[in-house]
Amino acid sequence: MSFVFSKENLLRIETLKKRYPSPKALCLPCLWMAQHQEGYISIDAIDTISEEIGIAPMEIYGVVTFYTMFHLEPQDKLNVQVCKTLSCKLCGSDEILKHLEGKDVKISHVECLGSCGTAPVMQIDDVYYEELNPEKVDEILKSLR
Amino acid sequence: MSEEIDIVIDSKTYHAKEGSLLIDLLIKEKIKVPYFCYHESLGPDGNCRMCMVEIEGQKRPQIACDTFIEPNMEVRSTGKTIEKVRTDILELELINHPVDCPTCDQAGECSLQEYYMDYGLHEAKVSISDKVKHKKHVDLGSNVILDQERCVLCARCTRFTDKITHTHELGIIGRGDDARVSTMPGRKLDNPYAMNVVDLCPVGALTSKDFRFVQRVWFLQTVNSICHGCAKGCNIFIDHNRVKYQDDVIYRFRPRRNDEVNGFFICDEGRLSYKALQENRQETALLQGKEIREEEAIQEAQTLIQKYKDNISVVIDANLYSEEIEAILRFAKKINASVHSPLDVYIEESFKDDMLRSAHRAANYKTIEALHIDTHEPKSSGLLINFNHPQNFNAAAHIDFLTHQRDVPSLVFPIADYTENSGTLTNEDGILQKCEKAISRNLPIPTVIEILLKVKV
Amino acid sequence: MRECKIVSRKFDIPGSHTLEVSKAHGGYRTLAKMDEYSPLEIIEIIRESKLRGKGGGGSPASAKWTLMPQENDKNGKSDKPSFLAVNCDESEPGTFKDRQIISKDPHLLIEGILITCYAIKAKHAYIYIRGEYKQFQDILQFAIDEAYEDGLLDHCDITVHRGAGAYICGEKSALLESMEGKRGHPRLKPKHKEPEWFFDNPILVNNVETIASVPFIIQNGADAYKAYGTEHSPGTLLFAMSGHVNNPGVYEAEYGTSMMAYINHFGGGIRNAKKLKAVIPGGASTDVLTAQEAECATLDYETLRSMKSALGTGGMIVMDEDTCMVTVLKNLLEFYHEESCGQCTPCREGTGWTDKLVGKILDKRGTKEDIEKLLEIADTMNGKTICVFAPAVATVIKSFVSKFRDEFEVAV
């Protein structure tokens, strides 16, 4: 197994284990740590987590594929996640998506981000960008380069 | 909670344990109820939603696999409402199904097909191009092939590797109509019981590489038998067929439920043991490697027995039927031979596990013990008559009764194997079990008993 | 319209998310009040207040609380610790209220958690937060860290548990499956009333806003809470508005407020002076209302139920006269198609099929039979699954097709 949790993450895992009735509850927390550490969740990381928390690798793999925010491959491009659900759609998410076409980013259509009052919205990494229009999108992308 | 109570199903009264599962009662009483995900060995999961019944006092139809029997319960398993519900859910089950029955090995024993005839007969409303596409041929390993498009996601196979073998190779990935059964990337289904998932699969999603495209199931004849792979005595079905102009052939072994012995399953090694059984059969009598007629062989045997009178040992294979062993004992007594059945040779500790596989790889060693047969090797003797025991022993002369070819320069009689004969066995737990005769060869091979009756001593 | 800020009282104060500002404005003072009552008395006050769950279902909060074991009983459940799970998996389209609480007044939530845990004898609370809310989670975590430092959490732990993108995890049993490290599949419902279970330990699952309402009720009494709202829907809700309104956002109002008065008063009316066409009253999974229906609607559980819709989360999605309702239904079905957990056949296959059918109608490739088929599938999806996801989709489909049938027929 070539994946090893960082010392800091190992410490967090030990702390978290005391906070749950079963180490299995650490499945999502560990997957998040692995994804932050490597940028994606490798099969090696799944094996390491399996040993750490006592859930079979296949079960963890099933979990990873159930949740949309986990990646099994490295993300080489900026992942621009545009909310396409109703309120954003009513307020112009189509225009944002069209504007993003051809730009050197990965465009992901995601479901409701819970930011309907400030539609249209997109998320890049962990940050929301709200009340978007094409000019604002350009500024944001420029600032992230 | 475990009191026997009355329950009314379709206006008829039945007895059942309070708190037990309704679907178990329906299955036991052979009341028709369709289901994919429920399996008596795996328990309820409630995902397929097919086993809907109406329960008096409940607004909506309920699934029988998640209904516990209560006093004064009144159930309707038929009627317009329930049939419509089943028809509608089945239609949803079928919309993404490829309907490739003509090339599917499950055809003929497929729950989807069966229920379609009972409740379905829908017109196709989704054109082929609109169906969700998945992989049609995934080699899961252990002789199991997965067709994700035929899968109804009942999760029986994944629950089998989670709850029964605890090997966790299979799981469901993705979600919604993108969900599918899979292994970890680069990993295989790999456990000694893996092929049971093929039997568990209610549709043609999991098929056996060994059986794929070999025979349509409706041509097969089925016979009850016992696996001879070890002393557990797992109950099996032998599926065989005589294709025109060819010989009667075994196409597969399948587990046969016996809660006392093997439950629902058998190990893969036992399941596939039918193959070796049909290879390298000893079909004719031999003398020093040369074919001879049976009468000649009997003559030769009688001469040998006469020549080595009072200096004869008999060795018996612990896989023979009890009736055969007893006949051999009678014969040995007549010719005044010592009788042996060395059992050490059958012990294989590495084969043993905590599910079904026993270290004693002899189907009837308990009978050998019960008859107080000497389990030591015979001392060097003049004539050694070996009834298919796997070991070779030193002696001045040999007579071998063999089911399968062996390199012995002696007098050889071919004998029927257990699928060509009927008889009883006692398994390692002392349970007496019967095997039926499955195979009738175009040129029959005599049984041990038939030959012994012809030998005049 | 009467101003009523029960949960949002401190929202507009600068630095409201910090312990200092919170305490300066009365934060945590109810903990002293709490000590005057026994746990059972707290539950009794909550029962009297008729506080209803604010996650969408609207059932009385106290009903779930009373299922939590108060005494060590002899039925083998004795030494199992009780837990609280706060549902912050806010994912219902049109709903963005809980994020206001955790980012603008997280200490109110913590205070509510402490009181709730006291009442149900839990020593540990988890806050299950949707994975996308990381930036709000950070604010919440900061507040929890402050509370730890201040000694507020000496006898009761709070752990934030981050989800990872799955709408269905807002369903309480799917949430617990997710917390147990599994795929978020809703569990089969128990036959008799019992608590939820977290690794075989009793656990109470409540929405963020429900818990955040608790301090006001304990501080001021059940009657003070019932002074707002209607008889059966007492109190307030962080109603929200999005879509074609001038001032979308979250504004607390009492139950029973007229829908149009709310939209006009807080939302400033329909955008670009257009006419109203339809309102989805409480998150995507509630039946759409026509403009005429919206005129008569008041924002309480009973009225909306009588209109064959539901109050849901109170997140209204407002649509103007130019909106194509076939497009809207297609958009919602794409959401459900993407988010179905895939466990039950009717939902797994039904969401995909209805999405494709409406897509076909939208592309003008549909037939009249497709509309009928759509309604038929909706019937099959209703009432035959483990959780209420599929039934919600079914009624959404039916409401759109029946109320705007002409638009569907024009499209075929």
Please, could you describe this protein's structure?
The complex is a heterotrimer of chains A (145), B (457) and C (412). Helices cover 47% and strands 11% of the residues of chain A. With 145 residues, chain A is α+β, with helices and mostly antiparallel strands. Chain A has a 4-stranded mixed β-sheet, with helices on one face. In chain A, helix 2 runs antiparallel to helix 3 (43-53). The two termini of chain A are 34 Å apart. Chain B starts with a strand and ends with a helix. The mean pLDDT of chain B is 93. Chain C is globular. Chain C is built from 18 helices and 10 strands. With 412 residues, chain C is α/β, with parallel strands linked by helices. Chain C starts with 18 loop residues before the first helix and ends with a helix. In chain C, helix 14 (325-339) packs antiparallel against helix 15. The chains are: A alpha+beta (145), B alpha+beta (457), C alpha/beta (412).
Secondary-structure topology with pairs:
The complex is a heterotrimer of chains A (145), B (457) and C (412).
Chain A: H1 7-17, H2 27-38, H3 43-53, H4 57-66, E1 79-83, H5 86-90, H6 93-100, E2 106-110, E3 122-124, E4 127-129, H7 134-144
Parallel strand pairs in A: 1-2
Antiparallel strand pairs in A: 1-3, 3-4
Helix pairs in contact in A: 2-3
Chain B: E1 4-9, E2 12-17, H1 22-28, E3 52-55, E4 62-63, E5 74-76, H2 80-95, H3 111-119, E6 138-141, E7 144-146, H4 156-164, E8 171-173, E9 180-182, H5 196-200, E10 206-208, E11 221-226, E12 235-242, E13 248-255, H6 268-271, H7 273-277, E14 285-287, E15 290-292, H8 294-307, E16 312-316, H9 322-334, E17 338-340, H10 365-370, E18 381-387, E19 395-402, E20 411-414, E21 423-426, E22 432-435, H11 448-454
Parallel strand pairs in B: 1-5, 16-17, 16-18, 18-19, 19-20
Antiparallel strand pairs in B: 1-2, 3-4, 3-5, 6-7, 7-10, 8-9, 11-12, 12-13, 14-15, 14-20, 21-22
Helix pairs in contact in B: 2-3
Chain C: H1 19-24, H2 30-34, H3 39-49, H4 61-66, E1 82-88, H5 98-104, H6 106-120, E2 122-129, H7 134-149, E3 157-162, H8 172-179, E4 196-198, E5 201-207, H9 208-220, H10 222-226, E6 236-243, E7 249-254, H11 259-265, E8 276-280, E9 289-290, H12 291-296, H13 301-306, E10 315-320, H14 325-339, H15 345-362, H16 368-381, H17 389-403, H18 405-411
Parallel strand pairs in C: 1-2, 1-5, 2-3, 6-10
Antiparallel strand pairs in C: 4-5, 6-7, 8-9, 8-10
Helix pairs in contact in C: 3-6, 5-6, 6-9, 14-15, 14-17, 15-16, 16-17, 17-18
